[in-house]
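Q: Here's a chain of 491 amino acids. Please give me its 3D structure as tokens.
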Amino acid sequence: MGSDPQYAKYPNLSLAQDIFTLTNPSSSDPSRHTSLKKVQDAISEHKMAPLYRHLAHPLEGVLNVSGQGSSQQPPSTTSKKTNSASKIIASTKLPNTLDFPWDEQLFEKLTEDNEKELQSFQREEEEAAEKAGDTEVLAAKGKRAEFWARVGDKEKAISSYEAVFEKTGVLGTKIDLVLAIIRIGIFFGDKLMVKKNVDRAKALVESGGDWDRRNRLKAYQGLHLLTIRSYNLAAPLLLDSLSTFTSYELCSYSSLVVYSVLAGSVSLKRVDFKSKVVDAPEIRAILGDGDDKLAALSGAISSGPGAGDEEMRDATSATPTPAPTAVNLTTLGSSSDGITEVEAPVDFTPLAGLVRSLYVGNYQSFFLALAAVEENFLSLDRYLYEHRGWFVREMRLRGYQQLLQSYRVVGLKSMATDFGVSVDFLDLDLAKFIAADRIPCTIDRVNGIIETNRPDDKNKQYTDVVKQGDSLITKLQKYGQAVRLRGSERG
């Protein structure tokens, strides 16, 4: 089978983002209409009858939970599925500006087309069983599994992939099948299923998986950790994936850059933040401006000054090609099936401003950039949306900690001016972090100052030893009482 990935075409995770955009209160009307057209076109093109029913059915559709839709549809006996599968949407109600109606005739046509396709798969399997070998039978079963993944039937797709997994003996193919199951879980927002299969894929890779699949799994694992708010664990995996990213079936390269920068900004220590985010060539090639971007693209940052040595040029070459002034992310890679999808242009200015202002300590610009990042990235991405409030709060905390750790006493008004906020806002915001023991300081509102309480490492170690010793003594006493009781019972 080689190292070429299999079963990587479906499901289309960009379609899940479009479905999320439909119900996202933060999305603009033009983006909603664009996503609606993409969803409707995909349903028609790929004959996605199960997904269409899941979304738009007047009784069971997650977009019509209140019974909206066509009254021509008779009540269904199928139980309503509203658990993990409904996490594909941001809200259970479409905006009034959009109309995603239930078309019974369209559904019947899609279902009929699905039945014909399934019959062809059945004939192919029967012919393979009669005239060919196990390899051909497995290939036919794999087509059926990809069909269910394509049309959006979660349960049948998983069971079909599991059936193929049980029959195949090739390790690389098994890993590809588990990765496909992970993408189905990501598509429908089933985090428990994703976690289970990420662990399963790790075990398979550790048993002898090749470099390409090991590298692809790193991106899968990083994205999963991002969705469950484990940014500190996701950051190293996502940042490592930047230079060798090939999992275009999972997300676009621009999305990976966004996830990597956000995870690194909120979780890495300052030294690691500089080396892995601020000075990383892959990130500077995207977020940098002017000479920084061109140096990163040409390899001068990673290769050193010698990368531009004049003596290495070919004297007989024609006029040199001018250096590029912009980065086209669609040229950085293509999808696994060889079809390059045109990626929408992304404005990285707020993200670049966040990284730069945090590192140099320009806190007023930092707060402005943080607000822009929330508006342009956190509130619009289905993986970041759920944790946007937490992220903004943690980044504010990081800014406060970075400033306060350099001073013993800071004026409250001076600090409020640095961050571009009012004294009352800063007082209330800091009070929450102080009460939670996130910032070791006290606020003297009468004198208008903030005093930092620098922790003494030796005193802290002594306190920890006393606490742990008390706990150990208590446990030993309870154990001794239990032993004496058992002895008296024997007597």
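Q: Can you summarize the key feature?
A: The longest helix spans residues 457-490.
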